[in-house]
Amino acid sequence: xxNVVFDYGWNAGDATDDHGLLQINYVGNRVIGHDKVPELxxxxxxxxxxxSVYVDGNLGPHRxxxxxxxxxxxxxxxxxxxxxxxxxxxxxTTTSAAVAYDQVLSGAGAVFPKRDAxxxxxxxxxxxxxxxxxxxxxxxxxxRSSHWAPAGGQR
Length: 155
Description:
Layout: E1 4-6, E2 13-16, E3 22-27, E4 30-32, E5 40-43, E6 51-56, H1 97-107, H2 117-128
Parallel strand pairs: 1-4, 2-5, 3-6
């Protein structure tokens, strides 16, 4: 609930049912990325126990406004797993996807005493829809500095 996912690989969220019936409440998430596949992917394992998926208030490449059908964030082949009521779970306070997006971007990274240059750039990249997955320092965008260091601060 209330995740902000930027530049995901295959699915922004992925679930399997290999340990039994999986009950998911997918609520108030904001996904920023490509529109090649829906935001939430459900994969059957060999045992295929099944899913119960409640979706509400998510925004992303396939559902760009709250006026569109909720199910657009789930793989079309899995729409039959969508339920109209929340699945049992402890009470959690949630916000809209738009509020979650603003809250994450205002508080993500090194913000105290002030946001550093790297995190300022990353937040700007998210807001402008540019950038990409950086899995190693060598893969960072050309011409951009990086303050990355391995664990322990060794360079």
